[in-house]
Amino acid sequence: MKNRLHEWRDWLLRNGNGGSQFQWASNHSTQQVQTIFYKLRPALCLNGFTSHQLKLIQLVTRKHFKDLSYVRFGGETSCSQQLVVYTDSKNDRDLLMKEVKDNYLKEAEMKIRAAIGFRHVIDLLSSAQKLIVGHNCFLDIAHIYSKFLGPLPLTAEEFVSSINTYFPHIVDTKVLLNSNNVRLPRMKKSNTSLSSAFSLLCPQIAVNSNKNSDLAFRPCVNVEVQVDDTRSSNWSSGVKHEAGYDAFMTGCVFAQACKNIGIDFKSHSSSENLTHNDKLQKHINLLYLSWISGDIIDLSSGNMIAEPSGSNNFRIRRPKVLFENIVLIWRFPPRLNASKLRECISKVFGPNSVTSVYLVDETAIFLQFSKAELVSEFLVLKESLERSNDAISVLHPLSELLQGGNTCAAGYETYKEICSSPISKVLFAEQADAIGIRWKTKLVGSEPEAQSQEPESFSKENAATTAPFLSKKIEVGNKQRVIDDLLSGRSRCDEVIDSFLTAEVKQIGATN
Prior knowledge:
Its cofactor is a divalent metal cation. By secondary structure, this protein is of the alpha+beta class. The protein is 41% helix and 14% strand. Helix 8 (194-201) packs across helix 9. The model is unreliable at 448-480 and 482-512 (pLDDT under 50).
């Protein structure tokens, strides 16, 4: 290698002004060399060499030749080109290496930019401080944040503060449409879903809208869409729930809503920024944190604000979630749905005892009581009924819930413990089984190991005949409620009352 590079350099100095092509003496037909110019300098282009041979050429060039430099360009792929470049001075060589390094940096930047992909769009929107328009878009913004900006913060307040630095101007058309001066009278009887709002506000361009309705003759903002370098004011080449067409519908709804609050697009200058429009300003940076509950959060301040008056007339208001009032029930009989579970428990604790039932999945529910103390009363009663096998426990209204002997129940803290496990299962009941839960009832503020033991007040002689309601864990108020339920006609037969009275007499005799 050293001799051949000497030959090429000597040939180059002799024939610097031109001449025949240098011939590389080689026994391998694949090895070819060609003299070219690289950045206005003569260079030897190497083709057909193995990676080991190229490494030898690089080492020999670096060790024995001060006026030759080994250069690779075109990246580290199979398409890269290997050169030995001649330089006539040390300064020229330093300049060459600087130019090569600059090329490497440009190639690396191109790779990074290609890998970034759609992140460029997010960065451009953020740097341009554009007005971001979405429909019920809190989760959309959260999804964009997690995919392109960073891990989601732990709290909504931290998220709101962070997102406002990237996108300081966001308009939610769901909030905009629920303001009294934007929503059409007919919309109150319908809803403000994207497809419904699009059909009502933009009937002239909506797909499958009623073109004969009275709204079709109302003045509508003319929306033009650029498609394949052509402009169309009647583009309808999509269906709802396709991302492009949903964006089109959102834009049309936003434009029409702006017209309804008095923004005149004909007189509106293209250079005028809508984010500073006085009529739109009060609707910017307000997002529905939860459409069901009607919670609205202000992205500018992080504060919760009241929903516009009249906007919740058509929505069922759910009670506020109180975690201390919640009991978690899972592995109940599959034939029971949420309404049947609610009815079953309400028979025992009263018609107004259960405020709401939330379905976790087909194996588990959250049941919220009206009072926190009802949680512990329910758990104690469930545990007591499962310990007994007499007529009262069989005919008790809760027996339908406990049928099969697999039903588990606990407070809300247990739900947090189960879900904090690194084990992840699709169904909640499978998740609980996977982390090794063996108990069926966990009383509030107690350990499951203590619950698995029999109370000392129960002896083997009277365990079969003593009613579960007379356990020391059940207070007098609970016993009175059971008696009232039985005497009010909720019991199925008179034998239940007789059984209860007999058990009470035996319990009195045992204690005396």
